[in-house]
Amino acid sequence: MSGILDGKRILVMGVANNRSIAWGCAQAMEKQGAEIIYTYQNDRMKKFIDKLVPDENRLIECDVASDTSIANAFATIRDRFGKIDGIVHAIAFAKKEELGGSILNSTREGFSQALDISSYSLLAVAKEGVRILNNPASIVTLTYMGSDRALPNYNTMGIAKAALESATRYLARDLGHDGIRVNAISAGAMRTLAVSGIKGHSSLIKESESQTVDGINVTQEEVGNTCAFLMSNLASGVTGDVIFVDKGVHLR
Ligand code: NAD
C-alpha cells in the first residue's frame, strides 16, 4: 500500500512506553510508509522501548540535557542511516514540585531544568539535526494549551511550553531556506507517564474530555495522524504553526 510518507526516514524522540504520544506518532507514520528510528533517554527507559522495538539498530540513546549525548546520538544516526527526513521531538520534564499549587512554588533550579529539557532541547536537537536533515524535511514538537492559559497546576510547564512554541516560530524562520519546516502539535490531555507528574492529573484529563466538542477525548492515533501529515509533503505550506489536536478543548 502506498502512503504519504513512503521513502521517508524519521527520527522519533520521546517514546517511554506504548502510551507515549511519540509512540502514537511513530505508529501512524509507519502506517504511512515511513521508516522510523528512535532515541531513548537512558538505560532505564531502554527496558521499556526494547519491548516495543525489537530492532536494536533503530534504538539510540539520547539525553537531551547533555549536548554531548545529542551530538553522539546524531553522529550514530548519520553513521547507521545517513540522511533523515524528519524529527519528532516529544520530550518534556519538570520536577513534581514545579507542577502543583501556586506558581510561587517554582524554584530557580526547577524552572531552569524544566525549560532546559522541555524547551531549549528543541533548539539543541535542531542544531545537530540540520547536519543530517534532507531538503525538504520537517520537525514536529508537542505542546499543550497551558502555554497561553493559566491552567491549574500546570505552572512551570506552561511557561516552558510558551518558550517551546516561540522556539518553533524562530526555528521555522531560520530553517526555511534549508527546506526544513518546523511546527508544534498542541495535543489534548491524555494519560501518559509525563502527565502523571502533574498534581490532580486525573481531574485534568476528565475535565479536558468533558470540554471536547463530542465528549470523547482525542486519541494518540489522532495526534499521530496529524504528525504524519506535518511530516509529509502535503504540509509543504505549513511552518511555524501550532496545530491544535484536542477535539476543540481550546475553543472553550
Ligand atoms: P511520556 O512520558 O510518554 O513522554 C515524555 C518523554 O520525554 C519520555 O520518553 C521521556 O523519556 C522523555 N524525556 C524526559 N526527559 C528527557 C531527557 N532529559 N532526555 C531525553 N528524553 C527525555 O509523555 P507524553 O505525554 O507522551 O509526552 C510527550 C510530549 O507531549 C511532551 O512534550 C508533553 O509535554 C507533550 N504533551 C502531552 C500531553 C498529554 O496530555 N500527555 C498533552 C499535550 C502535550
UniProtKB/TrEMBL annotation:
InterPro entries: Enoyl-ACP_Rdtase_NADH (IPR014358), NAD(P)-bd_dom_sf (IPR036291), SDR_fam (IPR002347)
Organism superkingdom: Bacteria
Organism: Lactobacillus rodentium
Protein name: Enoyl-[acyl-carrier-protein] reductase [NADH]
GO biological process: fatty acid biosynthetic process
A Pfam match: adh_short_C2
Swiss-Prot/TrEMBL catalytic activity: a 2,3-saturated acyl-[ACP] + NAD(+) = a (2E)-enoyl-[ACP] + NADH + H(+)
GO molecular function terms listed in the Swiss-Prot or TrEMBL record: enoyl-[acyl-carrier-protein] reductase (NADH) activity
